[in-house]
C-alpha cells in the first residue's frame, strides 16, 4: 500500500527526528500528543496534530485504539512508532494492518519472535547464532529455576522474559541469593510488563555490549550497517554509544555482522532493527536480544555510514527493495553519542522534574543534537527523563571525543538538574579515552560522588547574585542602588551551607569564604582574581542562582534568611517523596513494626523505580497506598518511634 501521510506515534526527540526526515522526503506529517505535551516541540514540528488524552501514557501514547483513530481522522495511511511505547507491540502492528494502515516496522510475527526473550533465544539457538548457557524453558516453578541456576553456575543473570531497559533483571554471584533475586525480578517484571516469566543466563562480568544495525526489505534482502558499542551503562541502561567499536578488528566485525544478518533473516525481518550481543574479552560474542525498532542510538550509525535510517524505513515500508549491498557499506570516521537526562547522577540517578527555564544546545563542526525540549518546556514525571541526544562526529575517535566534550561544555539547561557534568566526567576518563570501557565501567570508576564547588565557584555565584540584586535595586530606586553611609558596602550570603562575606568597592567585590579571599569584578563577563570566568548563570528570583561552568552545574540558594530547620529530616521517621511519581508497591501496613532499613514502598517516575526504606525503627503510623500519585516532598510514611511515643505521653 502506498502512502503520503505519516503519523508519528511518539513524543520527544524521536518524534521530532522522524518528522524532520518525513517532511524532507515530501510526506505530510501528523503528530499526536497528550495533555502534558500540548505545547511540545514535536507538535509544532508536524503539519497537523491530534490530541490523544490525559498525560498518563496508558491513556494516551499507549492506547492503540486512540492512535489508530487519530490516523484515520487525520488521513494518515502509515504510522511510525518511534521507539518505546507501542513500537514493539505485535498486537499494535496487527491492529494497524487490520485497519488498512501501514506499520513502519517489522511484521507482527517478527515482533512476536523477538518480543519474548526466552522464545527469541530458543529461535536464535536453532538458527546457529552464538548463545550463552542458560535456561529459557516454559516451566517456571521456583524448584525448576533453582535447579537450572545450579546447573548453569555462577555468576548468573536473572531476566524478565518480556522485559527491557534493565527492569526485572538481577545479577547474582551466590546460589543462596537466587530465591530472593527471583522474587524481586518477578515482582518488578509483573509491574512493568504484565508478565513474571523469567529466564536464566550465565553472566559475563564486564563484557562489552556491541550491537549490529540491520535493514531488511520485503524482498528477502537483509544487510548489516556495522556496529555500535554501547558498553557505558547505568543500571543496564545505555549512557554513551559509539560507532565503530574501538575494539573490533575487521574479521570480528564481519563475524558479528554475519550473525546479525542470520538472526534477522531467520525471522524474515523487514525494516530497521538491532541485534545485540555481549562481547567477552577473549573475542567470543553471544546473542543478547533483538530490538525490532529504531534504536535511540541510531544517529551514530547514520554519521559513520552517511545513511538516513528513517528514510530507509520509509522506503522499505513503501515496498522498495534495498539498493545497498554488503560491499556498499563503509564506515568512515567515528561518532559518539551521549544521552542528556533530567536526573541527578549524584543522588542515585534520581529523575528530576520542572520547567526548562533556558535551553541552549551546542553547535559546531561535527555536532548533532536531537532534542525534545525547548526553552519553556515542562519536564514531568509521566515519561522517560531523556531530554536530548548530543552526538559528535570526527575523522577519528579522539577527535569525536574532544568535540563531544566541548559540545557538552557549551550545553546549557537551566531550571532542573541534568547529568551534563557527569557525562563530561565519563568522556574525560583515561579508560574511556583509551577505548577500554566495558559494562562494568561506571561501577568501577565511581563517578557518582557529587563534586563540591570550590571557593572560586562560590565566589562567582556570590558575585553574580550580588550583581543581579544591585540591578534589581536600581530598577526599584534609580540612582540609589549600592548607596551606603558607611565607608564600604558589606553584605552576607549563605551558599552551599557556607557563610560568605562580600565587601563592595569601586573595583568590584572582595568575597571571603572561610579562610579564602577572592576578588570579583562585576563586568558583563565576571573575572575572579584577574582571570575571566567561563560561566553562564541564571538568577531565578532574588535568592536562587543556577550556574553552568564548563564541567560543573550548580543550583544554589541564599539561605541566610531561612528560618531554623523545623521540617522533618533524616532519621525523623517522616519520609518525604524525593520526586514526583507513583507509588507502585507497598510492603508494610499500619501498625507494622519495622527496623531501620526495612523496605516500605517503591516509588516510580520516568520509568525508574526508587525504593523507600525506614530511616528509624518503630511502628508504621501512616503509609501511602499503592497507585497513589505524589509530588516531591509529599509525606509517604510516618514511623512512630519510642522517643516520639514518650514525648506524646
Could you describe the 3D structure shown?
The chain is of the alpha+beta class. It folds into 5 domains: 5-104, 3-Layer(aba) Sandwich (Rossmann fold), CATH 3.40.50.20; 133-202, ATP-grasp fold, A domain (Dna Ligase, domain 1), CATH 3.30.1490.20; 211-445, D-amino Acid Aminotransferase, Chain A, domain 1 (2-Layer Sandwich); 455-557, Glycoprotein, Type 4 Pilin; 574-648, Beta Barrel (OB fold (Dihydrolipoamide Acetyltransferase, E2P)). Helix content is 27%, strand content 32%. The strands form 10 sheets. Strands 14-13-10-11-12-15-22-20 form an 8-stranded antiparallel beta sheet, with helices on both faces. A 6-stranded antiparallel beta sheet has the order 24-25-26-27-28-29, with helices on one face. A hairpin with a 2-residue loop joins β26 (508-513) and β27. α4 (90-98) runs antiparallel to α5 and α12 packs antiparallel against α13 (420-428). Mean pLDDT is 91; it is low at 566-570.
